[in-house]
Design a protein that fits this description.
about 325 residues; alpha/beta; Quinone Oxidoreductase, Chain A, domain 1; Rossmann fold; 2 domains; seven-stranded mixed β-sheet; six-stranded parallel β-sheet; 17 strands
Amino acid sequence: MKANVLEAPDKPMVWKDVEIPTPGPGEVLVKIKAAALNRRDYWISIGKYAGLKYPSILGSDGAGIVTQLGEGVDPAWLNKEVVINASHNWGDSEDFQGKDFKIMGLPDEGTFAEYLKISAQYLFEKPAYITWEQAAAFPLAGLTAYRALTVKGRAKKGDTVLISGVGGGAGTFALQWAVALGCRVFVTSGSGDKIERAKQLGALAGVNYKAQDWAEELQHLSGGFDIIIDSALGEGFAKFPDLCKAGGRIVFFGGTAGDIPAINGRKVFWKQLQILGTTMGTNADFEAMLKLMDEHKIVPVIDEVHPLHSAGEVIQKMASSPQFGKLVLTV
């Protein structure tokens, strides 16, 4: 089979022949129909991620057809159209991942290849109403956003939600999930075009975080937030306690803009706020996300589709994050 192989950091992926993996007990072989990129892939490709190893086949998002079964796998999976949960070995607690937790696409081989070997426990049937490209777009980012919003943020109908930095995969999914749940959703972005796109997806309004008075404008528009979803941290994070209503939850799952800045802790305890970290999610979270998608027929947002062999070129687009929605690779 052919695969995009990362042989060293800061080197282009190489589209080359590799051996087709053989599924062991409890595993299956999936013929990949589409895969999608995440920021995680970009950081690995430039050598700025934990647990690096070379050569590696990246890719945490994928959808395809089960073509071979290992010993002990339910025969019903053969020839099924599936999506794959990239969150593996979660552990015994629903509250946090265990020490053996890992994300598909490093250390194990990922979806930027023609075939993928995977444990059958991480297979879910592909929603029938979406395309292969759309099916590949949501597993990692969608799950991350779903857990942040519903498990940690405890979102419910009528809540006022801020999605900070909308436009990337997880932020866009958080917007879609929140709208489907009946929340009042507001967004921030450094791009006016992305704010307009977010409004087309159901956001009530948005502000440009590059403006000096962005927080004051958000407060005026919204009246304050029950939940704030953030994936960047950085200086703007210091404004979130001011923007929260009493009892509000600030949930974050990334730190691309820096660390948590100095914040007024008095506001945190006096307003009974919670600052919550989250990563990926459980199989149960994935199943609940699929149920929400199916109930509301939510269609993942795709920015661009490229051939699978071009992963090495497409990943460079993530350096400046110009996309709205997901970058997808297709066979």
